[in-house]
């Protein structure tokens, strides 16, 4: 039963003048925002997301600021976790580079030691080398 339905649907699509797009749509205005140094979307960061949604009406006698919103607290926690991960990975890369440099130095020392253990020129070959240099 599935095969006839599929062939019927394929024939309908072939006869149809409208084209179907299978690409994903880019967010509207993303290019403009990037060109102007803004976030890709309006909800990533900026005053609309970082500032509180409301404040006390009029003048508040004690001058208290509005309590932080749940979304702001969540984003702040996500940013903190991301910052800690960045620092950890950066330190890991630094340790890896130091280890690699120490290994390179150790390899150089081993090469020098191996060269010192090679047989030395003696007799006529030694005299030829002295005169050539």
TrEMBL record:
GO BP, sorted A to Z: mitochondrial translation
Protein name (Swiss-Prot/TrEMBL): Large ribosomal subunit protein mL52
Keyword terms of this UniProt record: Mitochondrion, Ribonucleoprotein, Ribosomal protein, Transit peptide
Keyword Signal: no
An annotated GO cellular component: mitochondrial large ribosomal subunit
Domain of life, per lineage: Eukaryota
Similarity remark: Belongs to the mitochondrion-specific ribosomal protein mL52 family.
Molecular function terms from GO: structural constituent of ribosome
Cellular compartments annotated: Mitochondrion
Signal sequence bounds: none
